[in-house]
Structure formats: structure tokens, C-alpha cells
Amino acid sequence: MASRSSKSRMVFNVVNYLFLMLMAILCVLPLINVLATSLSSSSAATAGQVTFWPVEFTLKSYEFMLNKPEFLRSVWITVQRVVLGTVVSMGLTLLIAFPLSKTSSRFRFRTLYVWLFVFTILFNGGLVPWYLTIRNLGLLDSIWALVLPGAVPVFNVILLINFFRGLPRELDEAALIDGAGHWGTLWRIYVPLSLPAMATLVLLTVVGHWNSWFDGLILMNSPTNYPLSTYLQTVIVSQNLTTLTADQMKDLAELSNRTVQSAQIFLAALPILLLYPFLQKYFVKGLTLGAVKG
Amino acid sequence: MKFKTYFSELPLHLMILPGLITVLIFQYIPMAGLTIAFQKFHPVKGMFNSDWIGLDNFKYVLAMPDFGQVLWNTVFIAVMKIIAGLIAPIVVALLLNEVRVSAFKRSVQTLIYLPHFLSWVILGGVLINILSPSEGIVNQFLNMLGLESVFFLGDNSVFPFVLVFSDVWKEFGFGTILYLAALTGVNPALYEAAVIDGANRWKQTLHITIPGIFPIIILLATLSLGNVLNAGFDQVFNLYNSSVYKSGDILDTYIYRLLLDNAQFSVATAVGLFKSLVSFALIGLSYVLAYRFANYRIF
What we know:
The complex is a heterodimer. By secondary structure, chain A is mostly helical. Chain A has 15 helices and no strands. Chain A has one domain (61-294): MetI-like (MetI-like fold, Orthogonal Bundle). The longest helix of chain A is centred in the N-terminal third of the chain and has 37 residues, at 2-38. Chain A is globular and about 75 Å long. Chain B is globular and about 75 Å long.
């Protein structure tokens, strides 16, 4: 009896390990295929000979991309939005979360404020009024259109509120006795203590800004103002070739659309892949930040 | 005394002010702007001064021949995604829970979390690449097995399932995190007692592990109710094309084309208002249910 159950257990284990391995491989195999295509010659790529290893290895597609002014310009715009957006939205998140982490008896308007923020998760004006509001403010084609509309990430605010509430209440009282005001308490006690939580939120915000493409598509009239993700969206998905110069057209003919597109996809994913080890370290923490509460 | 407490709370109000102004401008003004759903929008007169026409925009929307189809597509795709997206992470989390080699477990986790962090622009590019009928690696694999090529992104009978499958592919790994966290909270003494009672691994899973994570399953299931009209704009927009509008066009992409291709501001707003209202009711309901059954509060 015992041996039969251990035998079936072994069969289960083997199948289980194989299945999980297959799932894990399936998650990255498509990316490897794209990477291999981007490093292959155009003839091999168009003939569909590339699987998971480059055929007739070449870096030509990457050279082409890195010499393309539109591409470099969009990278620069993305860098700007990531830096500005992260600074602004972390600042606002911190300034909102601190007062709202107080109990209602210490900050009497807390409930009203909380509802004002949380209501924006439940209901929104939809695409058209949102677009018209930003247009009426004269923000179209400005970098601030990519930064300000999403500058208060309510979910992050909630995570930080919950984190602050987990800090010992005595710290507040000690600071008060030592004569620190609310600003001093926030800056000298809450900020240093919440650095790991803030690191999580910074990473999530950076990735969010890096990946977001739709605001660029709809709020930037001129393609010269597109951030990288939007630029990629228009060249990869919509296959818009009209922005190419004659020289680039000639280059492209030698290179094949397929290898260049693969190179673009991979270049866009690269920063996320480089950040990934940090992301992985922090995001589990980030998810459980919100979960740990009384 | 009362004045003094107000005074001491003043810095707290000041701290909130910048964020509050941002939210008022970029969230609450657009909500007020929903009024153009009841107006005939005029570009010069603008958001608050166009002429009122009552419910004409809504009548127009309901009379549009493809609106019913779009609504059906939205609900069909979203509900399939909710169900598949609920089951897949549970199964994988339970299987990962049986793994005793922690290095293997960690490697698998590292790889399956990855797609979550890539945008649908990137993954859309990847999928268009690998699903291409002529050069794509998936169809080459099918051909190798002696099967016909499938036009994944151009065939109305396949496209919705490509959406569901690729969405699960992107998110299932990330979805396991919460379940794995819940699994570590199951009391080990229960397993010891079960072994003494003669329960095998399968019985233990059925009677201890699954009941142990049941509250979080219920919680995530109720919260996903709010997504019934959210079929995933980013994904659909980056994968669809005019040949699969019939099966893949959803409310959000429909609104986008009404706005950008036809400049029908008021009609697009009417569709958007419909979506916002239904979603509001569903999300509200889901929070109430989650509070009732899982004692969950978002703040």
C-alpha cells in the first residue's frame, strides 16, 4: 500500500515538474524567438528559418534603429516622462498618504478626502471628456500631458496609507513631544521608515510610465512628440511607414521589416528586463503591503 | 479650543491640496464633462456650452447596427477572461505548492511573472510576429505536425480565444502570487492531523489546501465582477484589425474609433457614459459583496 502510494506520488512529481517547466518556458519562448529574429539576416527571417537561435548573425537591425532620429527622440521623451512623472507622482502620493493615514479623530476630514480619492477608482468620465479637459487646458503636445493627468495613482496611495498605518503609533507621539510638526514628522520619521515601500512604488511607477502608450497616441498631435511606447505602437502594430525618409526606405529594403520590428520590440522591452530583478524583489512586497492590515 | 484643533490640522489640509487639485482637474472635471452625452457637441462652443438634445445620442447609439454585437463581444471576451484568469493561477499555485525543490520553484516563478511587466504594445508586437500565418513560429510548428496554418489574428472564429489565451498567458504567473502567499498561511498542524487520519496528498489538497485558500478565491472572484465590461482595450487595440471587428471590437475600441475616425464626440461620450455607469454599479456591488463575504475593505 505504502509503496503504491509513493510510486504514484513519484509519477505525479515527474509530471508536475515537467508541466511547470513547460509553463515557465512558454512564458519566455516568444520573447526569445523575437530576439533571435532581430539578430538574424533579413533573408533568413523572411524565409521563416529562425526559431530560437539567430541565423546568419548580424547587428544590422540594431544599427539601423540606433541611427534613427525618431527612435532616439522618442527614447528621450520617455526618459523625461519617466523622471518627471515618477518625481511628481511619488511626491503627491506621499503628501496624500500621510494625512490620510491618521485616524478620523486626529484628522476630522479624513473620511471625506478618502472618498474623494477612492471615488475616482469607481467612476470616471471616460475617454472623450478626459481628452477635452486636457485639450482645454492647452496641454496637448506638452510633456505635462503625459505626467499630470495620471499624477495621483490612487492604488499606490492606498498601499502607502496602509503601510503608514502599520508603523507604531508611538513614533507620532514621540515626535510631537519633541516639538516636531506634521511636516517634520512626515519628513524625518515617515519617509526614512518607508523607504522600502517607496522603492516598490517607484519601480511600479517607472514601469507604468515606460509602458504607457495610449496617452501619447491621443494627447500628442505631432508624432515628433511621441514617447517610445507610442512610437513603437505606431510602427509595429499599425505599421505606419509614412514617417520614413527615402534613405531609410532603402535601408529597410535591405533589412526586412521583420528583423527591424523585432529589434524595436526587444529594445523597448530591454529596460524592463534590466529592471526585472529589482522588480521581482519588490513587487511581492508591494502586493502584500496592501494586504497586511488590521 | 476648537480653533486650536483646526489650526493644528491645517498642515494636513495643505499636504493634501496639490493632490486634491490634480484629481479635481483631471478626474472630476471630466465627470462633469459627461454632460456632452446629452448635448450636440460643437467644437467651438466646447464642453459645457453645446446645445442640449436630451437622450438623442443614446437613441442613436441603440439604433446603430453594430452596437449590440460590440456589447456582446465585450461581455463575452471579458467573462471568458475572468473565468480563465481565475482558474489558471489557482491550478499553477497548487502545483507550485507541491514542489519541494525551492531553487526550481523560484526559477519557475521568475519566468512566469515576467510577461506581466511588459506592455501590450510589446507583447502585441511579439504576438503578431509569432502568430503570422506565413513566417510565424507557431504556424510553422503546426505545419510541422501536419496541420493547416491558422490565421490567428484574422479569423473571427479564433480571434476572441487568442485574446483570452494571450491574456491568461500574460497574467497567470502574476496571479499566483496572492495564492502562494495565502498557501503559506495554511496551518501545518492540519496536514499532520490529516496524515494521521490516513488522507493522501490529493485528499489533503481537497480538504485542507483548497478550503484554506477559499476566502481569497471568493474575494478575487467578487472583485473581478467589476471587469465585466472591461475586455482589455490595450490588448485588443494592439492585436485587432478590420477583418476581426466582428468578433473582436469591444466598447472601448468602438469609442476610440467613434472619436478619432468619425469625430463623433457626443455619441462616443454616450457610449462611454453607459460603460462608466454599468461598471460603477458592478464595482460597487463587488465591493459590497467582498465586504460581506470576505470582510474585505479597500482602505
